[in-house]
Amino acid sequence: MVPGLQTAPDSEACGCLNQDWTGAELEAATFADVRLHRRCAGLLRQLAAGVGSSIPQACGNWAGAKAAYRFLANGRVDEADILGGHFAATRERVRASSGMVLLLQDTTEFTYQRASTTAIGVTNRVNSGRDAEGRWRQHTLCGLLLHTSLAVTEQGVPLGVTAVKVWTRAKFRGTAALKRVVNHTGVAIEGKESVRWLDNLRQSMDLLGEPERLVHVADRESDIYELFCLVLELGTHCVIRTCNDRLAGDGGHTVASGMAEARVRGLHHVELRDAQGEVIHAALEIRARRVHLLPPIGKQKRYPPLDLTVLHVTERNPPRSRKPIEWKLLTDLPVRTRREAIEKIHWYAMRWKIEIFHKILKSGCRAEDSRLRSAERIANLLALFCIIAWRILWLTQAHRTHPETAPQAALRDREILILDRLIPSAQADEPQGKTLATYVRKLARLGGHLGRSHDPPPGAMVLWRGLSRLADIELGWDAAEHPRCG
C-alpha cells in the first residue's frame, strides 16, 4: 500500500457526508472555533472540485462566496492553522513509508496587479522598457513569495507539504543596500531572505523527526554554509547543488582545483528530452571526493570546517548544439561506489517535482488570478491551494509507481461509477481492470489526454482539468437523480 492511499474516514467536524480526502487532510487541524474548522473543510472541498475556478465560481452563490471571503479575512485564521491538519497527515504518511524520504525545497513568486502595493507588498522592481525619451522605466511588482518544503519518496510519490513560509520583500528591506557597504558574509543569516532555507529545514525536522531518514534536496540558491552546518548539527542529510567554489583542505586550494584531479568513478547513461521534445542520450562522467570544507573568511569565527562529499557530474562529448549537462553536488553522505553516486544523482533529479508543484499552484489553481486585497488573505488562500496542488501531484505520480492499487484509494464510488459510464472499457467490469491506473487514465481522458499507446502517462495538467470536469458532471448527475419540484 502506498502511503496516503487509504481513503479518508468520515469526519463530522468537517461536515463530510461521504468518504472525502479533504476530511483526512484537515482532521488534525486546530482552529480557534469549530465553525472555522467546518468552514475551512467546506471551502477546501469547493476549491478542489473546481480547480482553477474563482472563489465565487467555486462556491456557486453569493452566500457561499461571502462566507469564503469572511473565512480568509478572519484575524483568527492564518496559513499555519489551515495547513496544520495537512502537516499531521503528511507526518503519518512519512511514518508509513519505507526507505529514505526526500524533502524538496524551493521558492516561487506570486505576482498581482494592484493599484497600490501597500496592502500586499512588493516582490521586485524590473525594467519595463524605455519611454519616449529613451529612459528606462521601472515597474514595481506587487505580490508575495512562497517557500515550500515537499516530502516525496525515492520513487517520486509526494507525501505532503512539511513547511511553508510566506513573506514580502518589505521584511528584508535595506539588506541589499547594506551588502554594498559591508561584506555580505558579515551580514547575519537571520537578517537575510536566505534564512528561509534554515527555517523550513527546522520546521520539517520538528514535524517529522527521524532525521536519519530525511534528505534535504535543493538547488544552487540554497548553497549556504550555515545550511550545511545545520544539517550536520541536526543529524540529518542533504544533497544540494553548489555554485560557490570554497576553500578546502588547509586553505591552499579550492574545491574546483581539487576536483580537477579526481578520477572518473564511472559513467551513467541517461535519456532525456531537449528543448524541442526530441529524445537524446547522454553519457555522464562521475567524479566524487571527500573534502575538508572551510567556512568563508567572514564566517570562520562563527562556524567550524566541515567534511562533505563533492559529487561532479559532467557530460562526455556533448554536442555543440546545446549546453552540456553539468551538476556539482554537495552531500554529507559518503559516495564510495558508482551505485552510491547514481543514487545521489537520482535524488537530486527528484527536485523537479517541486517545480511541478509550483506550476500546479500557478497554472492549475490559478493562484495569481485572485482578487483578494491583502497579503494575509492571499496567504490563507495559498495554504488551501497547497493542499489541492499536493493532491493533484500525488495522483499524477501514485498511479505510475503503484498502478495496481484499488481506485477507491483516490476516487469515491460515485466518481468511479460516473467514469465507467462516461468512458466504458472492455476491462472495466473485470477485476484486473479495477485499478488506480485504469481510472486515472479515464480521468485524464476527461482532461484531454488521448490515451494512445505511444502517449506518455498523463501529467498534472490533464488531471486537474479532468478533476474539474468530473466535479461538474457529478453536479449534473446529482441534479438529474434528485430533481426539485416547484
UniProtKB/TrEMBL annotation:
Coiled coil: none annotated. GO terms for molecular function: DNA binding; transposase activity. GO terms for biological process: DNA transposition. Residues 323-388 form the Transposase IS4-like domain. InterPro entries: RNaseH-like_sf, TN5-like_N_sf, Tn5_transposase, Tn5p-like, Transposase_11, Transposase_Tn5-like_C, Transposase_Tn5-like_N. Pfam families: DDE_Tnp_1, Tnp_DNA_bind. Gene3D superfamilies: Tn5 transposase, domain 1 (1.10.246.40), Transferase Inhibitor Protein From Tn5, Chain (1.10.740.10), Transposase Inhibitor Protein From Tn5, Chain A, domain 1 (3.90.350.10). Residues 19-77 form the Transposase Tn5-like N-terminal domain. It comes from the Bacteria. This is IS4 family transposase.
